[in-house]
Structure formats: C-alpha cells, structure tokens
Amino acid sequence: MPRSRAFAQVDVFSAVPYGGNPVAVILDADGLGDQDMARIARWTNLSETTFVLPPGTPDADYRLRIFTPGGELPFAGHPTLGSAHAWLEHGGEPGTAGRIVQECAAGLVTLRHDDGALAFQAPPTIRSGELEPADLDRVIEALALRPDQVLAHQWVDNGPGWAVVVLPDAQAVLDLVPDLSRIPDLPLGAIGAYPAGSRSAFEIRAFVPGIGVTEDPVTGSLNASVAQWMLRTGAVSGSYRVSQGTVLGRTGEVEITCATDGEVWVGGATTTCFAGTAFA
C-alpha cells in the first residue's frame, strides 16, 4: 500500500526561483522498488526524479537513485545538488560538518556545504578521446553545421556519457536548431565562449533525446566533464561561470572551480519551490 513520504521539488542552478532546472526529490524512499521509481519518474516528467535512501556504506551520508523519464542514471549533477539541499532541509546531518558524501551507482560523490552554498566534486572521467568520424558526421548534420565550425570535439563521460563539440562562440550555440532525429541515441553537448569581460565565460546546451529529455535546461554532469576536459587541455583554469537554458527562457548559471590539484567542483544556487507529501 502507498504511504506518505516527504517530497520536495528543488530548483537548481539559478539564483532566480523557477529559472533553473527542477528536480523532484522523494525523501524516505525506503521500500520503493525499481518499477515504482521508474513509474514515478515518468509521471513527474522532469528531466530527473531522485529517491533518497539509507546509505549502503558507513562512508556515505545517504544513498541516491536518479531516474529520468526513460530510465536510471548512475550520476547526474543538478539532481545531486538538489537532493542534498532537500536532504539538509529535511533534517539530514552530515557525518562531517561542511562535507556531504552521496552514494550513487557511480560511486561516492563528495559535496561541499558552505554558508548554504552547495558544490559537488566532479567524479572521475571514465571515457575520453575525440569522436569517431561517423559520430562526428552525425553531430554536424544534426546541428546543421559546417565542419570548420567545430573547433574541437570529445567524448566526456563521468556516469552519463556525452559527445561534446566546441563552437566558435556563444552565439553559435544559442543559434542551434538541432534535428535530433539524426542522433536519437547520442547525448550531445555544445559549448561556445562569450567575449572577454562577459558575465559568463561560456554558453552550453545539452540534448538527450535517448532518455526522453529533448533539451536539458541546466546540466551539472555535462558541465563537470567538459570542465575536466578543458582543464586537461589548458583551455580553462581557476573559477568561471557557464550559462545554460537561455534558449528555453531559463537563467541557469553553473559555477566551476578548478583547484590547483586538478579537482573540479561544480556549484550553483538551490531553492525549494514546492514541499509537501508524496504518496508512494
């Protein structure tokens, strides 16, 4: 029989409520099965719905399962931040002050919690390298680009695997009108730089038709793995901001910090917009 469970819908990656990417968080999800979680995620119809469970290891503060309308993900960025926010508001107490450890299918993910701000440490990249010629051709065709408009390309994978292309500038990214029927099974990111002195260093967009998400408003996992790639190549360093969701009318902002030891931290604003009870 269904029972009442604490629920929150959290806006992530925007200082303006309802401007970022929402995640539905079912707290106290113990006892829900795989099919229950999948059915709830299809019903909420958000890019992700998460389920907070007791940890399976003493090294974690809680365990998180992350579902899209099309299936389960091993890791995702905005659900990680939004779920940590909801867990704290629900009375969660980390084992170490200022440090939260989330257990998920991709392993243990560390978050920093400082004066209400949350940031997660990017998980290790498990796949890299340039796109294969056939995949690159599909991407160019789907985005209606000329080959010379792709300045660089790479597989970036820290749980969700992404194909990423670098375009000449942010406006080129904003102007994209993709034909996703050309890449139905290929998670794709496109990034381009803003002029020096702009509020954001880059504009990024994410297309994930294979899991039922045509365009994701703001994407933590993509930003994390792209930052790791660009840090390796020397294209970025220190701290910078990425805008996302502009084409969708969102005000997403992702704060990236590249530490001197090579760690990449991904943060952004989190705001509870709805809180109450779910019956599941």
Write the layout of secondary structure elements.
Blueprint: E1 4-12, E2 21-26, H1 34-44, E3 49-53, E4 62-68, E5 71-73, H2 77-89, E6 99-104, E7 107-114, E8 117-121, H3 133-142, E9 152-157, E10 161-166, H4 170-174, E11 188-193, E12 202-208, E13 213-216, H5 220-233, E14 239-244, E15 252-258, E16 264-268, E17 270-279
Parallel strand pairs: 2-3, 4-6, 10-11, 12-14
Antiparallel strand pairs: 1-2, 1-17, 3-4, 4-5, 6-7, 7-8, 8-16, 9-10, 11-12, 12-13, 14-15, 15-16
Write structural notes for this entry.
It is a single chain. The protein is an alpha+beta fold and 280 residues long. It folds into two domains: 4-122 and 268-279, Diaminopimelate Epimerase, Chain A, domain 1 (Roll), CATH 3.10.310.10; 133-262, Diaminopimelate Epimerase, Chain A, domain 1 (Roll). 19% of the residues lie in helices and 38% in strands. The protein has a 17-stranded mixed beta sheet that branches. The longest helix is centred in the last third of the chain and has 14 residues, at 220-233. The chain is globular. It starts with a strand and ends with a strand. The model has no long low-confidence stretch (mean pLDDT 95).
